[in-house]
Amino acid sequence: MSVRIALLRGINVGGKNKIKMADLREALISIGLSDVQTYIQSGNILFTSDEDEAALRQRIEQQIDKVFGLSIRVIMRTADEMRAIASSCPFTEKQIADAAASAQGEYLYVSMMHEEPTLEQIEKLRTFESEEETFGSTGRNLYLLFNQSVRNSKLAVKADKLGGHTTVRNWNTVNKLVALADAMEKGV
Length: 188
Hints:
Layout: E1 2-8, H1 21-29, E2 34-39, E3 44-49, H2 53-68, E4 74-78, H3 79-87, H4 93-102, E5 108-113, H5 119-126, E6 133-138, E7 141-146, H6 154-160, E8 166-170, H7 171-185
Helix pairs in contact: 3-7
């Protein structure tokens, strides 16, 4: 069985779409997912399954709607895909250090999308880059680097509207999900 990661968009943010993680775990166990665990309150779920991504996503979305009455989009990644995200950051150590020194809060994020954006979409997004905010793209993932703050970022807003479904996680969360997936695979 493969370790999978389901990333829910827009739950427990600003008092909206509240779901307790213990209740979410139980709901997903009840549809046959194995080894279900969650990480923080923003909808990061790790589990094992050999089921097809599209089928899993649909079953999870339907279960959340049925149990919690919420229409929540789910982005799926395998443990290998999450490791690739963590190891493929397109920014240099200097760019990251400069952002860390000047940013107000978190500065490095990954926007994980259901579908890979087109070259045209990427080029259009480039028009919103500045010295304060930039991005890199690999497959279905956008890496967003902010030298100030993600708040009021035109780039972040436009990245979210590339088309298809997307959800964003900060760099610390990405790396924690990799560590949790590694531990699951090792049976720890």
